[in-house]
Amino acid sequence: MDPSTSSHALELQNLNSVSSGNQEDFTCMAPKLYKAAAEGDTNILEGMPSADLRVQLTPNKNTVLHIAAQFGQLKCVVWIIQHYSADSSPLQRPNLKGDTPLHLAGREGHLEVAKALIRAAKTVSERDIESGIGADNTMLRMTNNENDTALHEAVRYNHPKVVKLLIKEDPEFEYGANFSGGTPLYMAAERGSRDLVKIIIESTNRDRLAHTGPWVEQLCTQL
């Protein structure tokens, strides 16, 4: 079974369980709302109270934007982003595992969804010029509970187009290692992915690349 399909079924089961009487310290998402976001049904979303879209969460603390991003529902993602207008918090909001919607889009390889999320964050940045680093860079650099960025996830699941996009959007950032010791470049080389190694090396500042150590050259020459 596809991981997304399995996750979909499990989360729906959890939602039904919670809505049947279990008490939680958050407003549990209605199964109808979850299903609409997962299937990209904006007609259902349009009929939901605005407050529900903002506060309802799944047991894994996923928002409607997390769900739409995970399942690659571009139209739904765009609708939700427009509904939130200039608010950057849904873009950067982590779920229980620390994943933002961009983490999930990167993991699943949803290129157009990733583009939409980044484009929305840039719009927020343009409106908030006084706040140091832009919302787009903040989102790109956010790490989950495993210290993975969205780029780590895209590399792990071998999504070259998403990898290229994420690096292009924040080319000066030096991606560190996750809690397993893997940088995006190390992960790509370790997995024997020539395409990903080439993308990362060609997109990375040579001075920063040298700081990763001699193992990089050794691993890359073995591919």
Topology:
Elements: H1 3-19, H2 31-39, H3 42-46, H4 50-55, H5 64-70, H6 74-84, H7 89-92, H8 101-108, H9 111-127, H10 135-141, H11 150-156, H12 160-169, H13 184-190, H14 194-203, H15 206-210, H16 214-221
Description:
This protein is mostly helical and 223 residues long. It has 2 domains: 3-172, Serine Threonine Protein Phosphatase 5, Tetratricopeptide repeat, CATH 1.25.40.20; 174-223, no CATH class. 62% of the residues lie in helices and 0% in strands. It has helices spanning 3-19, 31-39, 42-46, 50-55, 64-70, 74-84, 89-92, 101-108, 111-127, 135-141, 150-156, 160-169, 184-190, 194-203, 206-210, 214-221. Helix 13 runs antiparallel to helix 14. The radius of gyration is 18 Å and the shape is globular. The two termini are 31 Å apart.
Q: Regarding CATH, which class of the largest domain?
A: Mainly Alpha
Number of strands: 0
How much helical structure, as a percent, in the residues?
A: 55-70%
Alpha-carbon distance between the termini?
A: 31 Å
Question: Main beta sheet, described?
Answer: none
Name the poorly predicted regions.
none
- Following the backbone from N to C, one meets helices and strands in this order, namely HHHHHHHHHHHHHHHH
Task: Give the name of the CATH architecture of the largest domain.
Answer: Alpha Horseshoe
CATH topology of the largest domain, by name, is Serine Threonine Protein Phosphatase 5, Tetratricopeptide repeat
What is the beta-strand fraction?
under 5%
